[in-house]
Structure formats: structure tokens, C-alpha cells
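Priority: medium. Attachment 1 of 2:
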């Protein structure tokens, strides 16, 4: 099982929710997981119903079996100060630069630098060891940028290593890429069973593979249940007014005569059933597209009541049986 789990997906697919649920699933049975946020949206804090995360690793949840989930909202400015101190011993000078606005200017004017700092901080957490020379965290889960820019985000240190031919910047960039392009890392793509998210997922996987970045699984989120069996779906797709009216009448909803209650219910029910049948057929087509990607695909249910903390633990349990250690994958 890869120790760095990167989660990406098209906006609106619920990648932050999946990231949080995966962190909980991986922490089951005494493991320590760090959940990393890199986009500054404080989505993790909202999901775990806690206050905004500072730039420090803070315990936010306990998983079944006593495992712990820590979270870190990486701030590019603070990460740059860490970098200056780590490699150049410029802690005091770095703070002076921050007061002058130079740190903010550097991270804003050079978005590539920002990505270097964000990925570098996450990989440092993956490599970090404690006093007993054990890894500080069993797993690091990154709530990464959307699919459209995930490859460039993860591959930015490759470009930096090529530009800086030697020195600490070159060495740090190479160290980060050794983690990101190794079996220690898996990049998961979250999608919905809809045409645009599925197509973006396929495109993202192609880009990741071309960049030789390790692709993990496809996670289909918010899957709605099928309410009708195959025979009922075929019926819903056709004109079955008389049959439906008679069935409603037999159910005690009044006679099937014109103008009766059963008669008035026929059109709305047939319309809803037809929409359901069309959606099921669309989902079937999108599952076929995903199957051609030649990756393990796992589905998470739509939580009709929304994703609160209890729902997050439910999704974690679903993931535990699928892609977490000890599951079926």
C-alpha cells in the first residue's frame, strides 16, 4: 500500500470528502494518518466540524480501532520560510523578508514556486521519521488540485530539477520526485457517473501516465441507487399508461377511469420512471468508459442527507472494505 495517497478530481466530484474518508479508512486499527490540504479552502476543517486549521499538524479525528488522523493546511508562505531555514539557515532573515512582503510576492508571482513548496512539504511528511527511526505517519493523504492541473502540480519539481542543475534546490527537487514517481505514491481520481467528469478523468489518467506518475484507483463518488429492476426499466422506457393505471387501481388508489386519482398519477410516475431509466442508461455508458481505463474502480454511495461527520465515517467504512489495507483490493 502506497504511503502517499494523492486524491484529485474534477470540481464538484467531492474529492475533499473522499480524501477525508480515505484518511479515516487508512487510520483504522492504530495507524497514524496525515491529511494534507494544499488549496487553502479549509474544506477539511468544515468536514470534520472543527475550527480553521493553522499551519501545524493537528489531530482532528480518531478512527475505529484507535488510529489517529492529523491534518495540515499547507500555507505556501510558511512553507517557503521553512525551506529557507532548512537549507540556508535564514530563519531570521526569512521573517524579515516576510515583513517586507517579499515572501508573499514570491509565492504569488511564481505559481510554479508555490507548487514546489506544497509538494515538497507533503513529501517531507512522508519521509519524516521519529526518534525511534519509524515513520512519523503511516500514511499521508493529499487533497490535491483538480484533475485539470494535477499532472503539472505533481511534476513541477521535475522542471525545477532541470533548471537548477546543482545545489540544494536541485537536490530537494530530485528528492521530491523520487517520492512522487515511486511505488510510495498513488494518485487516485474521483469522478461522478456523468460524461464530463468521466472524460476529464480519462484525460487526467492519460496525462499522469505520460508523465510517468503512478496512477492508483478511480473512485466513483455519489452513486445513486437503482430503484427499478431491468424489466421495470424497459417498461419505463415505453408507453405503458394502461398497465400503470391498472396497477395503481389495484393498489387502492381509485379506479383507472379517466379523471380518477390513478389516471392523474400515471403521467408524473411515467415521467419520473423514464428519467430514471435514462439516467441508468447514461451511468451504464460511463461505467463502460471507465472500464476501458484498465484501473480498479470503486463506488461510494450518495448520502441523501448530505455529508456530515457521521456520513464521513460511513464513507470511510466503505473505503476500508475496498482500497485500504485489509480490504478486498
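Attachment 2 of 2:
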Amino acid at each position: 500500500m502506497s504511503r502517499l495517497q494523492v486524491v484529485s478530481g474534477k470540481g464538484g466530484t467531492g474529492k475533499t470528502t473522499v480524501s477525508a474518508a480515505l484518511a479515516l479508512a487508512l487510520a483504522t486499527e492504530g495507524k497514524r494518518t496525515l491529511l494534507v490540504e494544499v488549496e487553502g479552502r479549509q474544506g477539511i476543517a468544515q468536514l470534520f466540524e472543527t475550527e480553521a486549521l493553522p499551519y501545524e499538524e493537528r489531530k482532528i479525528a480518531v478512527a475505529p480501532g484507535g488510529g489517529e488522523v492529523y491534518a495540515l493546511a499547507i500555507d505556501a508562505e510558511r512553507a517557503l520560510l521553512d525551506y529557507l531555514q532548512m537549507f540556508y539557515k535564514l530563519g531570521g532573515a526569512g521573517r524579515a523578508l516576510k515583513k517586507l512582503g517579499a515572501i508573499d510576492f514570491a509565492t504569488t508571482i511564481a505559481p510554479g514556486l508555490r507548487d514546489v513548496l506544497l509538494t515538497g512539504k507533503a513529501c517531507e511528511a512522508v519521509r519524516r521519521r521519529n526518534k525511534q527511526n519509524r515513520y512519523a505517519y503511516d500514511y499521508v493523504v493529499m487533497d490535491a488540485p483538480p484533475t485539470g492541473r494535477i499532472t503539472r502540480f505533481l511534476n513541477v519539481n521535475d522542471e525545477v530539477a532541470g533548471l537548477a542543475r546543482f545545489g540544494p534546490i536541485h537536490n530537494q527537487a530530485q528528492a521530491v520526485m523520487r517520492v512522487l514517481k515511486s511505488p510510495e505514491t498513488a494518485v487516485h481520481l474521483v469522478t461522478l457517473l456523468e460524461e464530463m467528469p468521466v472524460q476529464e478523468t480519462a484525460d487526467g489518467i492519460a496525462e499522469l501516465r505520460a508523465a510517468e506518475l503512478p496512477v492508483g484507483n478511480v473512485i466513483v463518488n455519489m452513486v445513486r441507487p437503482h430503484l427499478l429492476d431491468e424489466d421495470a426499466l424497459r417498461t419505463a422506457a415505453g408507453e405503458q399508461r394502461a398497465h400503470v393505471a391498472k396497477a395503481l387501481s389495484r393498489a387502492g388508489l381509485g379506479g383507472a377511469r379517466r379523471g380518477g386519482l390513478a389516471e392523474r398519477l400515471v403521467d408524473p410516475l411515467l415521467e419520473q420512471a423514464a428519467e430514471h431509466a435514462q439516467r441508468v442508461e447514461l451511468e451504464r455508458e460511463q461505467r463502460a468508459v471507465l472500464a476501458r481505463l484498465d484501473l480498479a474502480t470503486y463506488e461510494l454511495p450518495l448520502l441523501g442527507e448530505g455529508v456530515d461527520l457521521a456520513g464521513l465515517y460511513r464513507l470511510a467504512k466503505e473505503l476500508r472494505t475496498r482500497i485500504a489495507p485489509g480490504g478486498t483490493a
